[in-house]
From TrEMBL:
One of its GO terms (cellular component) is membrane. Residues 11-135 form the MARVEL domain. Residues 203-220 have a biased composition (Basic residues). It comes from the Eukaryota. It is a multi-pass membrane protein. This is MARVEL domain-containing protein. It holds the Pfam family MARVEL. It is found in: Membrane. InterPro entries: Marvel (IPR008253). The chain crosses the membrane at residues 48-68, 75-100, 120-138. The keyword Transmembrane helix applies. The gene is Mo01716. Residues 194-220 are annotated as: Disordered.
Amino acid sequence: MAIMKAAHPALFATIVFFSLIEIGISGALVGDYNRDGGKTSLKTATRFLLFASLWTFIFGIFYIFGFLRMAGNVLFSIASHGIWVFVTFIFWLAGAAALAQQLRTNPNFPHETTLRACEAFAWMNAIILAGLLVLIGLSGMKSSRDGNGFGGSLAERYSSWRERPELQQVHVKPPNTPGLVLSFDRSPWQTADTPNLPLVKNRPARSHPHTHIRTRPFLY
């Protein structure tokens, strides 16, 4: 398995795990603040991080399952991943920054160790999500260059970066069309012995008489 293809479930599993830890930490803080009271701004920040943790945990599992089982579904497309990761990154960045600001301006506060841990996991999730956003953006740009746009499958884009073989150019002269030559880029896995293997999502043909159709080197 290619490194980039493995990066998606690994990174998503990491943010899901960190979110589970954050649920425990922020949930305990919210419970203590509800029972004993405390500074309103700290309560607001921890409650928001509890929400961000639950949001990330639930939808993170959803996207891991979709990537592994239904990668071709539009719900798990590059665009869908990009929107969710961007929104979630904003949640964690805002929550971590708000909590950090309160901890800097209020040096004397209860639950200091717990609050510091809450802040640390919030920043770690924000950093991981920023990295994911970059990877998804690069995948989307490559998918757009291939003619599929941001609605393409993220699984295909990840696998293509490391698994794409060198393409072979094949020239075909259709019968009864003098002067017309079709030029294909195809995978070396497709040989004369396997003429019926599908070529996936051809690009629209260019102008006559020399047509160039680029195909993805993926066989399913």
